[in-house]
Amino acid sequence: MLIYTDGGSRGNPGRAAIGAVIGNKKYGELIGIATNNIAEYKAVIFALKKAKQLLGKEKSGETELEMNMDSELVYKQLTGQYKLKEESLWPLFIEIWNTKQEFKKVEFFHVLREKNREADKLVNQALDGILI
Fold this sequence. Notes:
Helices cover 41% and strands 31% of the residues. It has 132 residues and is of the alpha/beta class. It has a single domain, classed as Ribonuclease H-like superfamily/Ribonuclease H (Nucleotidyltransferase, domain 5, 2-Layer Sandwich).
């Protein structure tokens, strides 16, 4: 299953939102006040949980996910290329680690911003108050 995620904040920290494209379904929502990095992590968590909900528990265990994001920092932290130094991200990292165990395979990929336009658009629509 192909997934694209993005998170962003206006101000750092500031008003924040997430966006996710899961297959042909699109989601965007405000998450309150957060840093950009926290928003990026929360977008991944949202997408993993929503994918499980859409698939159901049984089918999730048989499904491989391709998680695409334009945050190089989050991608490199999730793939072990960078150490996770910011303590506020530790619980989010652990939640991603635990949630991904419910799928057959989860791979994380870094994509250029141009390839992640739809998820980015969903973030901005949520921040602008446009109903999705």
